[in-house]
User: Fold these one by one.
Assistant:
Number 1:
Amino acid sequence: MPRFISPLVLALIGLILFGDGAYIHAKAWLAQVLLERAFDRSAATGEVVKPWSWADTWPVARIEVKRIGAGAIVLEGTSGQALAFGPGHIHQTVDAGERGIAVYAAHRDTHFRFLRNVAIGDVIDVTRRDGKHFRYRADSSTVVRFDESGIDPATQDVELVLTTCWPFDAVTPGPERYVLHATLIEAGE
Amino acid sequence: MDTYDTADSDAHPILGRLIKIGLFLLAQGIAVLLVSLVALLVSFGTSWSATAVQASLLQPGDAKSGSLLLKEDGATTEAIRLGTDIDITVSGPTLRARVTQVFRNPTKDWVEATYVYPLPSGGAVDTLKMVVGDRVIVGDIKERQQARVIYEQARRAGQKAALTEQERPNIFTNSVANIGPGETVLVQIEYQEPVHQSGSEYSLRLPLVVGPRYNPAPIVQSVDFRKDGSGWGATNSEPVPDRDRISPPVLDAARNAPVNPTSITVRLKAGFALGEVRSHHHNVKVESPDNATRIVSLAEGAVPADRDFELTWKPAAEKAPSVGLFRERVGDADYLLAFVTPPSAEQATQRPLPREVVFVIDNSGSMGGTSIVQAKASLTYALSRLQPNDRFNVIRFDDTMDLLFPASVPADATHVGEATSFVSALQARGGTEMVPAMRAALTDKLGDTSMVRQVVFLTDGAIGNEQQLFETITAMRGRSRVFMVGIGSAPNTYLMTRAAELGRGAFTRIGSVEQVEERMRGLFAKLENPAVTGLSAKFSEAKADVTPAIIPDVYRDEPLVLAARLDKLAGSLEIKGRVGDRPWSVTLPLQNAAEGKGLSKLWAKRKIGDAEVTRTMREMTPEDSDKAILALALDHQIVTRLTSLVAVDKTPSRPEGEPLKLSELPLNLPAGWDFEKVFGERPHLTPTQLRERHADARNQPTARRPTPATPDAIRLPKTATSAELKMIGGFILIVLALILFVFNRRQPLLTDAA
């Protein structure tokens, strides 16, 4: 039945490719489950808790946008590996709630897929690893090139930037980034 | 495949098959998903039983993404300039150094400068002076946090301020706030240090640059259990909590002219007629006003701060004095410093015990250039010195590790030959994961107590997680003794001395290829001759607080150095011990002690070192040792981990509203290091933006300005996965396969019909 072989091979390759893509999503989803647990422990003890023993990163904060019911656990650092598991905190920037600007980046098709639904004026809640809560309001959004972010790390306000690749629906990587800017409106325990 | 042929009798053959194939594909899709999930779980799997150390999982790429790379180098004309002048006066057993740093601001902005610099680890920093114009402001010792607060307040208020903080016992940071446009501010620190003696040679060593440290990624979790024994503890996974503080920007020597010119003058008053005086790594001019005094200065004026300055001197007499006793009265207490060189055991009467020697060689990237050449030459020399009845092994490490032999082997010609070719093939690259290598070296596989077990560790010590290494040695040393060999132009001597102290061995320093043979011969004299053991010190009349509290074993040619605080200077000091298997003692009458300088500070510095050691050995709780250190530091005005010096000029100088810029001064790479080996590829050179710190909130509107013209400090990472692309591609292929399949099915039907 040689004429069935080529479609079968094609189907197999298709499935593997599809499975590989699905694996990225599965990893992103499963990692967040583990991270959620690590973060809860971290918030309870105030210590750095790693989601798995050899992780080269650890949860630093939880971000939530309650209006659209979205959220994610943010990891320290933005290496490719960290970003596969969750949004990353760009590590030259300050921690959320500190004077300056905290920048979180994540993949547009996994953890920051919800970013397209965040409107200006939305409230973004950030819970830090040490259990402190900060409330930000989204006040502007721009599209920039990755090397010209216009983000001033020396700002005097307490600010937050969530960033992901732009355009949202593109399937190939590009140089443009979507930058959602927010400013602190409330800090509490 | 037979099913396809026999199914022709179905009512809707094509539909039936399509359903079948659909189901098959669905099942396969689920299977692939399951497999991928299982694969994921397996890769997460070990975490459920995660106690094993996974050192091998660290990838070299992780090491390179340290904070050093992210900070751009400051190679612009806009940077703050620094010049350093070092003036050292040696008076007998101690030396006092005055380090003057000149911060010149050629820019048009108000600037805050921070400079990370090394000092000898035995140095007690006790004075900070800031010179602004013709005014001198003297710094006060304060608790670290408090000093920081005072400094920050002054910075915000526009006052000139200087702050000296200790990052490691041999790394300090000076911060100077509010240097006006075109202004020059002088910051002067002074420290006291004992002179080092080995055999008949005296030496001082002045580190001039902090070699970039390898800061391991947090991989291994350590657990701190609460002291109350309740079984609850907290995990602690950051091996280098202060990695940002000890990682200043570093200039690539191949692309930038060296910075930080340094001039050095040493006034040497040895207290005895001097023989040879030699500088090992710098050209010097030596003047001799009289036979016991020398004035040494750099021959070519200022040099770039990129290697350690080492000066050695010998007495004119054949043999150096074997005893030195010095005193100083401060407040109501007398301080005593004693140097005693025990006699060396007679070789003839002592057959050296057979030894098991484990050589560990660091072939990480920081060892690139001349360091690895020195290390290889040293090790090759060491291998040639082994006796046939010795056993040995060789371990090499970077961020990976190899044991040459599974366990130590006899040092016969075959094994030594194999080891020599193994060593000569080594290349320097990768990170520096020192802890696993030390652990492997200390693992006593033979357990043969008739042999002396020695670990010879060759490294530059360029790591930031010193404490983890100390804890490993303390926990695993057993009967092994650890001998540290410091390699390169700027080794981390704090790590070396403390590791050798905890490992009850000795520390040997090799600064150039020429020194290899001489220094290794010295080391082998220590390895092959019995140490002076079981040492104790007793004062006949005075009540004394002696440091070190537990006197370490003394190796051949090393003097025993004791510092003590006495209630009265009376009676004598008796030192007892065993040389080989024979008892030995010496009695020193205290009346004969000569006047010394700064001995109280040296005593306090040693006591602080003792407290840090007991903390590492877990003989004292961290709280207790911190309390002891703080009390000593405040009492004796010394900068420590917990105390800083801060000086504030009360008159504000920066007008309100003027912004303040922060400038982190870049360091040279130590001489002989290879930039690319340490940092990977050279970063693209972009004009550096000084990190701004606005002291005044009024600058807010300007702070928010968009800056598209200049490249930003923050680059946004790549944030798109290939998941969708793959899924779409996969989907298209599946559909294509289906179409093909249907098409192929049609074909035979048509031909059958025909």
Number 2:
Amino acid sequence: MKTICFYFQIHQPFRLKRYRFFDIGEDHYYYDDFTNEQIMQRVAANSFLPANQLLLELINAHKGKFRVAFSFSGVALDQLELYAPEVIESFQQLAKTGCVEFLAETYAHSLSSVMDEDEFRLQVRQQQKHIERLFGMKPKAFRNTELIYSDEIGEIIYSLGFKTVITDGAKAVLGWKSPNFVYQSATNPNLKLLLKNNKLSDDIAFRFSNYNWSEYPLVADKFIDWIVRTPDNEQVVNLFMNYETFGNLQPRESGIFDFLRALPAFAFKQGIEFLTPSEVTLKLKTVGPISIPNPISWADEENDLSSWMGNDLQREALTKLYSVAERVRLCKDHRLLQDWNYLQTSDHFFYMSTKQFTDGGLYKYFSPYDSPFEAFTNYMNVLSDFMERVEAQYPTSVDNEELNSLLTTIENQEKTIASLEKEVRQLRRSSARSEKPAPAKAPRKAAAPKKK
Amino acid sequence: MLRRRLYPIIERSEIMKALMFGWEFPPHILGGLGTASFGLTRGMALQPDMEITFVIPKPFGDEDQSFLKIIGACNTPVVWHDVNWDTLENRFGSYMSPQQYYDLRSHIYADFRYLHTNDLGCIEFSGRYPDNLLEEINNYSICAGVIARTEEFDIIHSHDWLTYPAGIHAKNVSGKPLVIHVHATDFDRSRGNVNPDVYRIEKDGMDNADHIICVSNLTRNTVINNYHQDPAKVSTVHNAVEPVSREIEEIEPIRHTQQKIVTFLGRITMQKGPEYFVEAAYRVLQKTDKVRFVMAGSGDMMDAMIRLVAKRGIADKFHFPGFQKGKQVYTMLKSSDVYIMPSVSEPFGISPLEAMQVGVPSIISKQSGCAEILNNVIKTDYWDIDAIADAIYSIVTYPAMYKFLREQGKAEVDEIKWEYAGRKVRKIYDQVLGR
């Protein structure tokens, strides 16, 4: 019996507004609300809402046999809550059916997995909590930003308690092997890997409405037929794609919704079942280890990190950003922490890619900037302001360890003060009870050291 | 030379002979036209079956004639005089053979004794852009008649409007097709207030041309829309750059200060948008004082710019070193951290390419023709002072930006070669001649 494993990514970055250098130090708000709202609402209306509606119908119609998985970035959830809360509601409805799995990833859709391990751990936890709060279930399977994965990252993911990871079926890694099996990490046999079937996923995500494609038009029975014809021993077809494929990247007129609507029925007719990633790794056996020494991703032909850290501009921006990571983590200012998350989103670095000079399409489609240089300048201006704010909170003249110990001292003092105050109150209450008429006129609260 | 030997068996009839009319030729140049003419002809001469005769108003004798033949209009007789060989040898023997003079003399086609000529029967030319430019253009075209009757050629190629009348004349005399090369139009020079005389000459040239070559799509659009030409006969061949010579490469930059230097280099005229540079400089200096600005060149807006700089109160950081020539240009470029060309309308604009060659990051306006072929530069609208200021700030503040543009810009511009442009022009010749 063959299995289809659907997983959909939902992500939108907080695009930055035009931020000139003379705004540095003057203006601490960085986001292009108008564009972000417009795009989010458009995507919600064209894609998320109708697609959710359809999935709900399918799940109900097939009595729970049709199952899918979603992965949200925290920044996308924040934007949905801001601009299209009805989408969250409709996902909650889906969650109630029990046929939907939610995956874990980094909150900021960041590159922290390759830049900063501590940050990575923090963000995954943050994201897990967020998903639990919204949908009432704790994610058990993990997918990293843009499916970035390597053996080293796998170790961290496993130590965070995940046993299933989703990544790309990159040619460079698989070679002659087929992505249609469950593999295990070469360094840790308990960590199971699901690899994206690039051909079949991209047939839907990128080629569906391409008139020049020899297989156009793609219809559900043909697609299922392709899956049936894969060798008998191949177990699972992992179809991983951007959720916006439905209705936004492939417009409604292309018939993408009808395709999706027809798919399960044809699949069941051929004896193909649907499972979510965690269910797949529970049910199916692994066929062997696979070693991924260098990070891979699902971007471009190269399937590496060159889209985000391929040139000097991108590397400089990333290094500068993460140079303040430790400091930022010490601070408690909510706005600063929020900006810290939003600035880490991988899209900002994608816009700086100079690969667009050679193969423009995708970069030009997503980037709000005219050129990678504009993207870099704008980002660096924002980052300069951000770093000034961090500096203002904790000047670099104090080194991290010293600062940390000072902060701990303050925190401990606060705790002591709190407990002492409590004691004073209790004593006062008991003393008041014992000698009722006496006017309580004890000096309240000694000079508590004020928190800066 | 080597290539010629590699292809020894080329029949005379297969050789493409072009008669070109130009106004400037290095080393004596006044603007971009001379540089472009030189580069293009040199790039074309790399084709083994290409022969070029280049006519200019006034050769100085030190032009490089290794890959083409230069004929000076000022050495072309229009009135018959009996001159002996030795006299001619003394006068211009170093760059033109007396025999050439005699050949030309045999083709005088009308009585031009009413014109002012010298003892050789030649008309004097300034070779520059004098006040009586229209008269000089007319005289040039008279000489072109003599040359066209003397020389053997397959195609005529006229560079810029000054030589269009000569091209038309040569076409009428010989019946050979005319290709004109639009290096600029009067719409670029005047921000729209065209001079009717110039427009008439330009339009006449385009109407009579069998094909029109423009240096950018920007110019091509102007030619199609403002001169009402059939798009089918208008092509774009982007300019290129000559590789930097050893001599230039060895020039040492002059740095007496740790401060960054932002340079504008060119004519200080309306077309080049100098005022946008001053305003952008003013913005940058409000945020940082580690930058200096240089506006090198001269022009009719220089005084106004000096006044503007004073009014903004940035005269201590903004410098006017005046017109730069020859090696000074490269010393200036090499000593800069940023090169800027905020031109309002630039048909091509070769100077940012030269800056990139010596590793200087460039900022150019989107209204420049060269923006069409360059990737590793920052492009802004010429009027967008904030964007220009932001770009300057970015390059002088973020080292990665400077390094990236410096390295990638140089790599990119090193691949923009005249040889490729020359091949495109050759294709157009073949197409026009139906070969």
Number 3:
Amino acid sequence: MSDNLILQLDNAEVRYPESVALQQINLKIEQGEKIALIGRSGSGKSTLLRLIYERLPDGTALIPQDDGLVMNLSVFHNVYMGRLSEHPAWYNLLNLMRPFAARVSEVGAILDKIRLADKCFEPVAQLSGGQRQRTAIARSLYQGGSLLLADEPVSALDEHQSRHILTTLTQQFPTMVIALHDTTLALDYCDRIIGLEAGKIVLDAASETISADELVHLYGGE
Amino acid sequence: MALIKSPSVFRHSLRWNVSWLFVLSAVLCLFVADISIRSFDPWAELGRLVSGLLQPSMSGLDDIGLAVLQTLAFAMLGVALGSVCGLFLALVFHWRWIRMMCALLRAVHELFWALIFLQIFGLHPLTGLLALAIPYAATFAKIYAEILEEGDRSAFDVLSHQTGWVSAFFYARLPDLWQHFKTYTAYRMECGLRSSAVLGFVGLPTLGYSLSTAFMEGQYSQVWALLILFYLLIASLKYWLRPSLIPVYLCVAPFVISNDQTISFANVARFFTQDIVPSPLLKGESLVGLWQWFADLFMTQALPGIINTLVLSQIALVATGLLSLGLFPIISKQFFGRVGRGLGHVFLVVMRSTPEYILAFILLLLWGPSMLPAIVALVLHNASIIGHLVGRFSNDVRLRQDAPTGINRYTYELIPRVYGQFLAFLFYRWEVIIRETAILGILGVATLGFYIDSAIQEIRFDRAMVLILITAILNIVIDGLSRYIRNRIRLSQAINIR
């Protein structure tokens, strides 16, 4: 067994009261891998991400499909939430009432990277879907860590923005598992592709060994 | 053809059957209820009351401003303390024993709490403050916990697992739920004003005290002046209850309610070690003696009290339902124009702003002691609340352009659409009606409150405490029954009672 192994799933299974969401999942994840999860909606991508997060909650940044934002708080505060655990409660409360300049400049630097700096103090409720998604991405960038788990993090962005964001994320996080809808992006930014269908892994291969055309069937010709 | 089944049989819904069951039970209760008019000449008394309305007078009222201030200060501090404690309790509301403790604290009406604390602290401000804060904290805990449970948790779930709960709560939960907390707390502030005023009836220096004094002396013009002042206070709530002003109010309020009473620790100790200890235990009698004491208390006081409370509240509940079904159209867009609805709103606001205790007090003086004044007071107050809620709900109903009008619109279009919501509101109110019914006993109707008040008058606090506990248990049982029925007939749980 290699020293770089960070997670090993042997025949893992996730059941919901009415159905089986994942079954016969055998998966090893090593440090430094960039993994794309692809498959139709309902194939178990989100469940697999949730399962991985449950096994590796520490040092993991998460971008859930619904963004997980607090609508009435500003972009700044939502991004700051990535590092709540690094400060004592009294500090966080003061920062909630009046942001500390040092934290604003830290968050501002992140927002600059994803071109959202002008929205820093705007409530998330007033943002568009794409801006909200970038806020959630900024939070994960601010949080940092060794592993990123992201569920369709660029679904509301155009291709140009998507590529920019994925480049930033791959630079920031040594290891990542991203559910992606766009197979071209998956091949371009990840070195390993895992295909899911009906809760089972049907494909697990290095990116350079497969082409976009071969992945089409996983989406049923979409 | 084989596909055609035998003609299906018309069947009433479960809601229909439950409704008639309640109506039937209320009719049966009418046979055993005492609903006569006892006073010598009720109409003359009513005439004097109404003529007082024509010339409300502030003269002869000493310190009326002070009474208003005291009412405000007690309400403000009681609700504030209750909401802060309630918030903390809401965070641990998933602990079973916290839920049970809150149910018990909530089941004891603030007037009973006041009667208890009067024995412990006398007229010290702590009496009024705790009498409000304790039941309010328990109610806040329940509602806040429901708000937290229904809120969106997605931001909370992505937080790093090392995040402390204070930071997590203030960042990921509170901001998006703040508006719900604020709306509910402001609504409870209105309730707090009513409760605070009513506490005057047991001796605290709030509006109720001036009101009962004016009534006893037959000074009806003063009664009206006080009532109008109270309505104005509630109607203007949104103008003076500003978030930015609340800290100022909270700083001033303690000085308003402070007086020269001191807490006697001997009194406190005596209350816990002697007053509330069942007398057979105090006299060193055996357990048999204790059992006989309890059995006697239960058979001669608690049982008649429970029966009367149930009989009265059952009639009041059903009559409340019927009246609210009649009242809701007066504020509904489906039936009246702007002017008509405006008048309807004024009527409902006045009725629901008048605490049922004050209504019952007035009607008792007019009609003499029977169940009738209590029933009418409960029905008017609660029906105006439910009528308001159902009316507002009916405004959201979208009717087709060619919908029928008048009685056909009422029976075919509106009632079927609002009936489920109406029943949900009514069953939520059931527990409140029971609690109020018990408390109206203090005014002389033989419900549980009557026996509790008598025991306190006779300085038998041991009995009073047992009776209060029995009242609380009755409340909890009714609350459970109401929840069971709501679940059985699938009434929506998450409704905005505001």
Number 4:
Amino acid sequence: MSTFHLRISTPDGLAFEGEVERLRARMIDGDVSLLAHHTDYVSAVGAGEAAVVLPDGQTRYAACIGGMLAMIQNEANLIATTFEWADEIDLDRAKRAKEKAEARIAAAKNDDRELMLAKAKLQRALIRIGVKH
Amino acid sequence: MAGASMKDIKLRIKSVESTMQITKAMELVASSKLRKAKERQERSRPYFIGLKETLVDIESSTKDFSSPYQKQRDIKKRCLIMIAGDRGLAGGYNSNIIKAVIEKMQGDIPTCILPIGKRAVDFCNRKGIEIVTSEFIEAGSISIPDCFAISNLVTQGYLSGQFDEVSIIYTQFVSMLTQTPRAESLLPLKAESNSERKESHSLVLYEPSPEEVYDAIVPGYIAGMIYGAMCESVASEQGARRTAMDAASKNAAEMIEDLSLRYNRARQGAITQEITEIVAGAEH
């Protein structure tokens, strides 16, 4: 199968660069899967799991939250706010974050801003836990 | 008399020596922190540039483009993000940034400040300026998620009409010896026409729509701007501290030299006096 060049950059630096067969990620309007020679495409990344299929058929999973994805002239550029490969995720930390966020949601009944922040934290923790499993 | 002053001088030398040790250590720490801040900024650059290019592309390739982030409104209230240091002993770093903020605040428009760094919080409290949040007190420990939190705070405040203009005041790291305070406007975003690239990107498929993509990535872009300014400021603070500590170490070395000379003179004086006394005693 033909491949395309993918570059994943985050504020922490380059997370991945190389040829891939397929990239699947969650955009703000749902999952998309890109194959080589996709039409020029730009969208904003939502929050969810990303999967990268390497030329040797191996699939790597990652938690991918926020940012944007651009495919211009068969060059894909994933600019993610958070991008963590499954093997880099600290499960214990994610679980702790989940418990903490749940406690915060329970405590912040009337505070809309606090509730929103806590919900976002919970979502991030859940995505990390989901990717790890 | 000579003996007492010899002892005094010796004590002074010792105390200056230990001061010099501290300033030298601080200089080394500042150098390494500075390098780290620069590296962090370097790493985040591709992320930030990528977002910026996309924003410019969307603006220039979409007809009748409009975004709430771009609309010019009457400025009823301003928000300043002020980045200062956590500690002193950094030359003019903190006072320069405070001067820049005071200058920016001139005029009748009410202003609120989002301070980052202990010195910035102190400044706002002292002057009685409205503070948006004092969650981000320690400038040295601001991480990328913190920058996203700040960005969400200001973009939401901007969209809800809490303030109509957002600027950031930080210190630009020009070189090891020069750091200049700078004010940059964040919101509303300025329309940047980039007609050269218009052609090649006009057929890009934006999903769900150019406007939605644009609005979704603006907070990330603002966070990138804040993070970049943050790293510049931290680098500047450490640079200023390094220079200040370098000067202090040099002064200490000079003082030690001066004191050693005085000590030797006092010692010589004491010996001469003793010999004179012995000789005077022997003659009789």
